[in-house]
Amino acid sequence: MISALDWLLEPLQYSFMVRALLASLMVGMICSTLGVYVILQGMAFFGDALSHAILPGIVLAYLLGWPLAIGALIFGMLTSIAIGALSQHGDVREDTAIGIIFAGSFALGVAMLSRVGGYAVDLAHILFGDVLAVSTQDLWIMAGLSLAILAIIVLFYKELLVLAFDPIQAQVLRLPTTFLRYLLLILIALTIVIALQTVGIALVLAMLVTPAATAQRLTRRMRPMMMVAAIIGMTANLIGLYLSYYVNIASGPAMVLVATLFFGLVLLFAPERGLIAQKIKRRPPHSIAGQPE
Amino acid sequence: MKTFLHPIDQHQSHVPTASSVELHQVTATYAGITALDNLSFTLHQGDQVAVVGPNGAGKSTLFNLIAGIVQPAHGQVNIYGSGPQGHICVGYVPQHNRLDWRFPVTVADVVMMGRVGKIGLFRWPRRQDRELVDHALARVGMQSLANRQIGELSGGQQQRVFLARALAQEAELLLLDEPLTGLDQPSQEAILALLAQLRQQRVTVLVATHDLNQAAEHFAKVMLLNRRLIALGAPQEVLTPHLLSQAYGNQLHVVHSAQGDLILADTCCGDGHETYPIVAQPPKLASVLERILA
What's the predicted TM-score (pTM) here? Predict the structure, then answer.
């Protein structure tokens, strides 16, 4: 009979599992924190598209023998800036511009991959990630990028908050709104790069969106929302990783499934804003804010 | 990089004798269409002006020009003696339905947003900022709700919070877009009382409204707008049948009755999708015009 502690410690006798654990926690923390801005700004579609658009960068970095993160970052920034420029200066709706540029970029990546087919770059690994293959060098890169992102979120906290809540107020206060918008795009690109190896292109979106959306139903201020989102993201990834070890399912999908389950539970059972709590207590008269009286 | 990150280290100083708002032959286009045509007027410090006109008259464009959000295609906008871009003294209270009310901020958080420009980058709110926020909340009677999430408030309470944000910003020029539409009575009264206080502090206030009755009752000046400036002056000078019909065109109907001229109009609302019958009858407008024409 194994005790619970043994159950928890057993996978950690393998060093690749220790690295996977650290990577999962880091990804859960940084994705969920930045994800708060993604959902508050309605950028979920952008995040999904961006995660696909960096594919050429990954392929290119592989061919050149660079760290994959560098190539992904360059393409993430290029496409982010192109999208921003096209929707702000060109006469194109933002979601249309996202569709054009990011789908085109993804196609380029797949085309490049098909040319170098037979090499070790495996589309399935890029699409779905492989947290068990994280190297020590990857971990250091992830840690460095995570710290940089957190520092920027803290430094520009109040400006990003105003911009997210009321862009006109940000302009009236003469905040550097264009700079802040691009900054946020670059942060999202960086975060996707960090998450890539853990969950892959196809599921990065869930890391950004699901824990943050869960946290929004449990909190009423920005900082608690970020902290709760980070805790949910880390917990989901941790449980997902153990699930993948003991139940033998792919780790990325396991993490996303746990996060999705968390969201479902909170959707139903959240103390005040859960569907069940809403059913039980009659809605107070003030809860219909946003509609004219 | 320094100037880029710190677009204004110091708030643009005001020329003490300058007009608070001065437009000189301003033309603005929106999506290729002329939204405002050759607008010139001057407002003085402490002026409170109701801006009226039909939908699409350019009220929002005018506010965006004064706030420095939109640049004029021609002409010059000055506030307190210089272009709007250098000023952080402009408070802008947007139309109510423009924001995401589920956003995770409390009432106090929203009011603190008024301070962000003056606190400056890489700095945190100080005690003085928190005191200004408390004071601003007290002035609109919302101190007790400071820790509520913004979406938990009624529409009128939310409107008062945004006014408090402008107060915390120490705005000297206030732009209010439909601030009273659809509000509960206490909130309307609180806002009107605050406007009276602001007049004494020589804060210049522009209020876009559809309610001509309110414009006539609560404002010393009325601006009648329909892509161009039709009139600016005291309500009894501006809200005349002749000028109103210029602004509202065929939305306006003059009826000669035994009691005198009666003007019926559709001055309202919606998004311009509805078509109203020509004799749609908002009694408020009719009554105020009767009084004026009597």
Answer: 0.86
